């Protein structure tokens, strides 16, 4: 089958009319970021923030139009909006006391309705091992017999395809809903499956949210006990919006001893507290260096900072994971240590953390299904 080209996609989008002006969305300059990867097509439609909900039919029409092209397997159109100066948050997140209701931006179906607990794994900054921790925890929860999904929301640097050892692209039998990828018994979705690693992507806040919503809403997650969301690093607007709008049951903060000292992890805590997402606890990663040859333990970054900080902040210390070559090698080669070497002390440590997370999730709800936040249609 001939591969669809960007030109063909744009030509077809030129037939989609924006009802307000009666003109097509391409000549209005609303279409950008067209990505064609095999038969999978993605693009964004720029709208004014006020018109997000009313433009949903246009987004849908654009997806349908492109989907009708021969050779197209899946289409993902996201609505994006420039924030106007008046809507932009002033200063740090702390200076915004208002707490908008959590809802889908396009106010449609609930996000991932079959998922019992959605848990964010977050960090104050990049490179602390957040993705490695997220993948190992997801697999450890699955090892305890639960149904688990892993959503790579780290759209700036999606690493879950590599860490989970998954290549290829998701299929979409009906052209609307994507089938998640799977490995080691868990379902996985990542922008990394849809977009070339080399493709430069410039993500603005609303676009991030829209992409995340689609990865929750337009993916056949089915019934899951837990979905682990590997969040983008940091505590900026995009992360705050996500924490607000995704119905999170809780958040886990990953931090290195250094990071704790630099207060980055505390910013993460504050962000979730501000939007009423329970922080289930903090994990100290690269806690100490365990020499692979002699087993000697060296506290390179001053191990233990997270434990005392957690106590001070009144949150649970979930556990510590050493800096160890085996953890790096297994996660970077697509064979996370929890599944490839389940007998090791590192795998045991991840499983203990996963147990604690599960206990916390179920403690408040007993056997009742989680009460999802109400979806507000705006
Ligand atoms: P983040 O998601 O915070 O950017 P990653 O999970 O991608 O961080 O980890 C960054 C690098 O550090 C990766 O190469 C990963 O394999 C490695 N790494 C993460 N945690 C550990 C650990 N405990 N011991 C050794 N290497 C680790």
Structure, described:
- With 378 residues, this protein is of the alpha/beta class.
- It folds into two domains: 77 residues, GMP Synthetase, Chain A, domain 3; 252 residues, Rossmann fold (3-Layer(aba) Sandwich), CATH 3.40.50.300.
- The chain is built from twelve helices and 14 strands.
- The strands form three sheets. Strands 6, 7, 8, 9, 10, 11, 12, 13 and 14 form a nine-stranded mixed β-sheet that branches.
- A hairpin with a 6-residue loop joins β12 and β13.
- The two termini are 42 Å apart.
From the alpha-carbon coordinates, what is the Rg to the nearest angstrom?
A: 21 Å
Q: Helix proportion of residues, in percent?
A: 25-40%
**Which residue ranges are poorly predicted, with pLDDT under 50 across at least 5 consecutive positions?**
83-108, 365-378
Task: Report mean pLDDT, rounded to a whole number.
Answer: 80
The shape, in one word, is: elongated
Fraction of residues in β-strands: 15-25%
Span between termini: 42 Å
CATH topology of the largest domain: Rossmann fold
CATH superfamily of the largest domain: P-loop containing nucleotide triphosphate hydrolases
- The CATH architecture of the largest domain: 3-Layer(aba) Sandwich
Brief sketch in words of this structure:
With 378 residues, the chain is α/β, with parallel strands linked by helices.
Note the main attributes of this structure.
single chain; binds adenosine-5'-diphosphate; Rossmann fold; 31% helix; elongated; three-stranded mixed sheet; 14 strands; GMP Synthetase, Chain A, domain 3; nine-stranded mixed sheet; 12 helices; alpha/beta; disordered C terminus; 2 domains; 22% strand; 378 residues
